[in-house]
Amino acid sequence: MANNVGVERTPTDWWKVARSGTKEPGVAGSPFAHLRLGIEDRRALLEDVLARVVAARKQHPPVVTFDLDGTLMDNRPRVVRILHELADRWKDAHATEAAALRKAHVNGMAYSLVDNLRLLGVENPDLQESALRFWHERFFTDAYLTHDVEVPGAVSFARRCHRAGATLVYLTGRDLPNMALGTFASLRDLGFPIGVVGTELVTKPDFETPDSTFKETVAVELARIGEVVAVFDNEPANCNILREVYPSCVSVFVDTLHAPDPPPLHSEVRVIESFES
Ligand SMILES: [Mg+2]
Q1: Residue 140 neighbours by CB under 8 Å, 6+ apart
Q2: Is residue 64 within 8 Å of residue 161, measured between CB atoms?
């Protein structure tokens, strides 16, 4: 992995974040908020992507890649659902904590699960550990993906890209054994183009592969599909990686939730908070 484009983040690292939380738990403002495009500039950026798709068609099949979690899909409802199920599990043995978990709401979600537990008032380390296991057994599985919703405007924009002639590549860190079928169904049910010509779902071969390593490895293979015109991801490291492999593409950082301690964004990466236009 080229260290100048991002931070290596293994599942172990990620698990550490989920387990230990951040230094200052809270739903802090994004450090990239000042880079977010205003609505007019965001609209212009998205229209530019569509125009590039149309222009590229004359020479090569145009490709647009989309990450899923935090980019096209908001997975916070999945977290809330799991916390509410845990509240049901705890209602007799840990009534106070169960009541706290029932207050979980998408608007209060932080990146780390332990941060979310602390924010809700679950401070007991043993209960946090138990909650982490409960969450982990559910969050990365097909069945719970039905709770995800679109990031505002994402379905409409993806459909417009597809109609304009782009091949959509859903390039996700979700893994093939546990999440691919649920992801396919979720894309279908939310209204994203999938299962038709001009769409691909690309997942990690296994859970253990670090997301950024997977994306860096697979990035070069995207060229076999066509010309990568634009890439969208909610992790700065991935935006940088894809921008480095395809310097002429439009690399867009979707500023929703992202892992702690992100690298600086490449200066050419654009920042949006939704696909509304
Ligand atoms: Mg993501």
Answers
A1: 174, 175, 178, 179, 207
A2: yes
Q: Which CATH class is domain 36-74+149-272?
A: alpha beta
- CA–CA separation, 258 vs 44, rounded Å? 25
Confirm if 239 and 252 have CB atoms less than 8 A apart: yes
Supply the pLDDT for residue 201: 98
pLDDT surpassing 70 at residue 101:
yes
- What one-character DSSP code corresponds to residue 233? E
Instruction: Measure the CA dihedral 176/181/183/185, to 10°.
Output: 170
Contacts of 102 (CB under 8 A, 6+ apart): 84, 87
CA 70–ligand 1 middle distance (angstroms): 5
CB 255 within 8 A of CB 33: yes
Q: Is the pLDDT confidence value at 28 over 60?
A: no
Question: Where does the pLDDT of residue 29 fall: very low under 50, low under 70, confident under 90, or very high at 90 and above?
Answer: confident
Number of Cβ within a 10 Å radius of residue 28: 12
For residues 121-147, average pLDDT: 97
171 backbone dihedrals φ, ψ, rounded to 5°: -110, 100
Residues 71/63, Cβ–Cβ less than 8 Å: no
Average pLDDT, the chain: 91
Residues with CB under 5 A from ligand 1 (ion): 67, 69-70, 234
Does the structure show a pLDDT above 90 at 17?
no
Residue 69 Cα to ligand 1 midpoint, Å, equals 4
CA distance 201 to 158: 13
- Cα of 67 vs centre of ligand 1, distance in Å, is 6
For the chain, what are the domain ranges?
36-74+149-272, 76-146
Taking only the tens place, the pLDDT of each residue in 151-186 is: 999 999 999 999 999 999 999 999 999 999 999 999
